[in-house]
Amino acid sequence: MSNTSEGFASTPIDSASAAAIADQGLRLGLVDTSDTPTFTAWLRADHRGFHGPEASDEMMAASLAGYADRRTTAVWDDAGRDAPTPVATVNSWPAPLTVPGAREVEAWAISSVTVAPTHRRRGIARALLEAELRTADALGIPLATLTVSESTIYGRFGFAPATFNTALTIATHRATWIGGAVPGSTHFIPVPEFRAELPAMQERLRSTGVGQIPSWSLRWDQLTGVVTDDKSRTAKLRAVAYQDAGGALRGLALFHLDGNDESFSTQTLSVDYLASETDDAYAALWRFLLEMDLVSTVKASDRPADEPLLWQVADIRAIKVEPYDHVWTRILDVPAALAARRYAADLETVIAVDDNLGFAAGTFALSISGGVATVTETDAPAALALRVNELSALYLGGVSAEVLVAAGRVEEREPGGAAALDTAFRSARAPWLPFWF
Ligand SMILES: CC(C)(COP(=O)(O)OP(=O)(O)OC[C@H]1O[C@@H](n2cnc3c(N)ncnc32)[C@H](O)[C@@H]1OP(=O)(O)O)[C@@H](O)C(=O)NCCC(=O)NCCS
């Protein structure tokens, strides 16, 4: 965490949004997460907002501890019949986001955006989002990020998808392994051992994995059933570890099987998580999962957009790939954001950025030399004109400027401007975050 974002949780609530909410007879405020009754009511409102079930006492206790360190905001209707329960929620925290060049930029992660159905479409979410963006900007954080329930909501606030995940459905009998033999060995391990090993491995992967932010303890507890309100899934979980020829742990997979008496030999294997630090670990774990007896279908979601697995099976059509937008970003400070990442080629260009909320608007000269960018405001004519949304989509190197020009989403004012930008911005591997936040 940088010096600028220290104390982020108690930074005063945004006055413009507080006034907009007050105009509706409602109250915007920060939640003291050490105040158990108040934070419990906030968590219940958050669960209800996403149509989740009432949390068990165990889940509530874990959530009170697990989310206590976030900046937690609520809207209350003090005249309502259940005044202690917020009618809207949001939380946020500064998260290091891995950017090209194995570097990090501090990003304002936003989560738990809910407005009660009783109070929807009165501008409450807009007040919350604008407050988050102004707070992050005031803290000197150069971009905001979130994962979204619906892709129609956040474009109006300057966000755009910068990474894509995929859901895979694999017909195992057609997916004969052609990826070759892999040294090392794969072993079943107890799920608690998987839980113990995964965070450190994920942290190692995060340091170079463009698009990654740190996960958190409660997420791993929920994934592995340490804390869960879904005991039936937990009971089915199996874990394996791959160790290389020297015995070092290089990969972990968590999965479960679903079948019944009528489909005993055609069960479905669902991959709950697969983390690999080497190509060998990746191949060994996928091969293990695809060659499981009594299984006809393997499913996995939140996989990367450029899964090598497609090239490791005899019939590429055995793998149905469904892509979806995942990490959305929203640049607030163009010079700081662009200077934070590294680039694949030198570039001299000018971009004109439009931002209907004002934060990122301007014309910027972008000078990239030796992978490092210097960004200054300029009056020079722009090679490319685009909204902050499209610049945010391009930022992590997973989206093509030429494609956005073809889509009419970026205006190319100088021929070749988009291709030159792509050569500098794009990465060989797709940015990827394997979980939601
Ligand atoms: C999505 C949600 C937060 C919107 O809250 P809200 O207070 O009704 O939204 P607002 O009234 O502030 O609307 C702000 C703008 O977003 C638009 N909008 C709101 N919800 C939308 C949706 N689901 N799809 C598309 N646009 C939406 C509004 O039309 C409005 O547009 P405008 O200001 O450009 O005219 C709320 O419906 C909700 O809690 N949904 C369930 C939980 C959820 O999906 N949360 C989002 C998590 S990422």
Commentary on this structure:
It is globular, with a radius of gyration of 23 Å. Helix 1 packs antiparallel against helix 4. It has 437 residues and is α+β, with helices and mostly antiparallel strands. The strands form 3 sheets. A 7-stranded mixed β-sheet has the order 1-2-3-4-5-14-6, sandwiched between helices. It has a 7-stranded mixed β-sheet with strand order 8-9-10-11-12-7-13, with helices on both faces. It has a 5-stranded mixed β-sheet with strand order 17-16-15-18-19. The two termini are 18 Å apart. Strand 16 and strand 17 form a beta hairpin. Coenzyme A (COA) binds next to strand 4 and helix 4.
Structural features:
437 residues; alpha+beta; 7-stranded mixed beta sheet; 12 helices; 19 strands; 27% helix; binds coenzyme A
Question: What bound compounds does this protein have?
Answer: coenzyme A
Tell me, what's the shape?
Answer: globular
Distance between the termini: 18 Å
Main sheet summary: 7 strands, mixed
Helix % is 25-40%
The helix-and-strand class reads alpha+beta
- Mean of pLDDT: 97
Report the sheet-strand fraction.
25-35%
SSE blueprint and pairings:
Elements lengths: L14 H8 L4 E4 L5 H14 L7 H10 L4 E6 L11 E12 L3 E13 L8 H15 L4 E5 L12 E2 L2 E8 L13 E5 L1 H16 L10 H7 L7 H6 L1 E6 L5 E10 L8 E10 L2 H12 L4 E10 L14 E7 L1 E5 L2 H7 L6 E8 L7 E8 L2 E6 L6 E4 H7 L6 H6 L3 E3 L4 H9 L12
Helix pairs in contact: 1-4
The structure holds coenzyme A (COA).
Coenzyme A (COA) binds next to strand 4 and helix 4.
TL;DR?
The protein has 437 residues and is an alpha+beta fold. Helices cover 27% and strands 30% of the residues.
